[in-house]
Amino acid sequence: MTPETHPSQTWFGRWRATMSEMTFSAAICLGFLIIVFIIGIFAPWIAPYDEAQILTNDSFMPPSAEMWLGSDYLGRDVLSRLIYGIRITLFLALTISCLSFLSGVGLGFLAAVSGGRIDSWMSRFNDAMLSFPSLMLALIVINSLGSSFTVLIFTIALIDLTRVYRVSRALAVNVMVMDYVEAAVVRGEKKWWIIFHEVLPNTLIPLAAEFGIRFTYTILFISALSFLGLGVQPPQSDLGVMVKENMQALLYGEYTTLYPAIMIALIAVSMNIFVDWLLLQSSTKLPDEV
Amino acid sequence: MTKPLLKVRHLDVSVYDRKNNETKIVDDISFDVQPGKVIALIGESGSGKTTISLGCMGYTRPGCYLTKGSVELDGVNVLDLSVPQLQELRGRDITYVAQSAAASFNSAMRIDAQVTEIPVITGSMTRKDALDKAVKLYKSLELPDPENIGKRYPHQVSGGQLQRLMAAMAMISDPRLLILDEPTTALDVTTQIEVLYSFKKLISDNNTAAIYVTHDLSLVAQIADHILVLKDGQMVEYGDTEQIISNPSHEYTKALMAAANVMPDDIHAPSIISAEAPPIIEVKSVSAAYSNSDAKNVLEDINLKINAGETLGIIGESGSGKTTLGRLISGLMSAKSGHVLLNGQPLNPHVQQRSLDELRQIQFVFQMADVALNPRQRINKILGRPMMFYRGLSKSEATKEVARLLERVELPTDFAWRFPPELSGGQRQRVNLARALAAEPKIIICDEITSALDTVVAQQILDLLENLQDEFGLSYMFITHDIATVAKIAERIAVMRLGRIVSQGTVRDVLTPPCHDYTQLLLNSIPEMRTDWLDEAIVERRALVKALNA
């Protein structure tokens, strides 16, 4: 076998090796997440009606052939609003998580690799940020700047950043003391090479797991803000807004509000099971005798 | 013949993988332990010696299963007992001394509380009786200040003392069987014989039966009555200690004998040095401390030279500053005063200020290959990177070079696509060495590179080092605590103690008596392959320690 064609060298080979060890529950959760993402991306083509269009004068109509999940309190199609809600929720959560991760991991690694006074100052400042209750901080910022997608994204990303920074710094500090990092230092490698080739590969899987957890928290956080009326503004809706809008109906025995609630729960649970599996993968592949 | 205390018959231990395939890690082992006798289980790592000793307590590590055989302690089959019965048995009839006492003590509790814990909680002794007994044991183990040592916390005593305290913990309930699992492996050579001597005394005083697990045949010769040689979970040879060390019948036992840590018969002649060529490395009156404000120097006025094609052995026990010296030469630490010359040119103290070519010429090999190789980089990248970094090779050129290099260190070329955790300890150490070779260096600083390996594997690494030296004209600075290893490979040696070089010169000059007291102490600590060595060595050792401290 020539070195160029070794299966573990290609992306596909590695992907196949990982997938063959996937557990049943993790596979189902991953499948569900993929479907949800596809629905989110193609929402305008999949949704039977426009999300804001009032179709009937009857609130809380039961499911029918025209409206699979019935109508909401204004007579809009619940299924369409759910599909658009998924789109907005996922878009927000993904943007926020990516933003907070790029900056948080970057700063965390920088602190760990620099060490000394830079590390102390950055970490103490971060501790101060962490001491604010996150919901309160978000309420203050959004109330003073007004609610828009941009404000929402940057506020929540900033709050998440502090958590991501903590985790990634701790992970990197653990790797920095290993002999292989010292071997790279004594070879004369630059800081950036050490970060990308020595630290990052050894923290990638715990970071991926953290990403999954942060992503879930972000969905819940956006939903909580929307529920308080500070998140996504009508007529647009995310899943949290839908829960809030249709909540009163519970008093009259209408369960419309449960559809978005169940959706939030399913996404959160799937993400967590998938992430748990990912974590397990990382721990079984690490050398155990070290 | 008296009735044996422990009868192990046809013991099998297996592990199962995910697809439920069985792999036997212990295969059909039978042996007896007579009361008051010591049996040694000897073999390299993975030979199943610890698994067997744990099996004697009816215990297996998670994932292992005792599939067949019996373990009879005084007529009772241990493997048939229930968990509560086993718990009663362990700690009362059978006790265990683990390899690392430091990891086995709770650092938040006083030593006395831990030593007396088992008899007190099982109610077999009152606290006061147990404490009195403990003091008696401390005395017979020759621990300093036996009345008060138990009132300390584990971090307040030395490693050798802690290992003896653990033996006290094991002996306090007068067990019938004591299992010692590599109890001296983690200790300094000079401490090792003290601990070994206490164990031997303790066992003979109390007439306890013991199982001694180790990979070092020369140690076993001092303490065991019988030896069981293991390889890959199977019994290779079983017999009297005298018979095994004087007349081993199996090839593997002979290999173990050959690799044992004893002084070699022939030593290297010093290399012929041409007067004109400057030495590769010259260290001139270097002193160093961990920080500039630190008044205490870890290195004090070090002077040494390493010539081309020569091996300099640096020897000393832990804390002597030998690793610090290696780190200083490679630029990981800077000197307070003095400097290091490479080919006659002064070197910048810090790695970042040195030129690429200077960095290339001095390579450092770390002690533990399992943490010195990034577990998430393939061997191809680990070895290819120095080639690309120092020699400017392209990726495909480096891949070809890696294959050649792997062949050179006697590894299969398809290892290039493996990750370090997929290799054995000896293979990893070869890769670790190959990484230094990849830079085409002039000198390699080897920091205890054989001390974590089994004796047979360590010998193979030493052979490889010599071959490479002949082929490439390399110089080595070989840092170790083991004087026997250094005598095998070095032409010149420097002995370090408390940050100073106490003696330096050719192997013959330094090691032939009369030599420095400390060198003599180190020499005295190497076990000899005969059964009466320990008793003589301990007398000489105590005289030397007294002289050194005076």
CATH superfamily of the largest domain in chain B: P-loop containing nucleotide triphosphate hydrolases
Output the structural class of chain A: mainly alpha
Our estimate of the beta-strand percent of chain B is 15-25%
Based on the coordinates given, report the CATH architecture of chain A. Orthogonal Bundle
Looking at the structure, the CATH topology of the largest domain in chain B is: Rossmann fold
How much β-strand is present in the residues of chain A? under 5%
Q: Which radius of gyration of chain B do the C-alpha atoms yield? A: 25 Å
Protein structure class of chain B: alpha/beta
For the record, give the distance between the C-alpha atoms at the N and C termini of chain A, rounded to a whole number: 32 Å
Low-confidence stretches of chain A: 286-290
Number of domains of chain A: 1
Number of domains of chain B: 2
Q: Please give the oligomerization state of what you see.
A: heterodimer
